[in-house]
Amino acid sequence: MPLYEYVCEQDGEVIELLRPRAEADTPVPDPQGGNRTFVRKQSTFAAKGIGGAHVHAPGGCCPCGKNTGGCGSMN
Fold this sequence. Notes:
By secondary structure, this protein is mainly beta.
C-alpha cells in the first residue's frame, strides 16, 4: 500500500498515511477529531548513494531527465 502525504487546509500540518490508491485523493478527516480537513500533497523524493553519489537503476535516467549520461555530467 502506498504512503501519501496530506496537508491541513487550515494550518498547514502535514501527516502521512498508508492508503489504497483508490482512496489517495479522498480528503482525510482530522486524525485528532477536530474540524480540520487534510488534502493530498504532491510528494517528491530523491535517492542518493554513499558519499552523495546519485543512485542509478539499470535503464535509469540522468538527473537532468535525459537517458543516463545524456547531459555528460555522469558516465
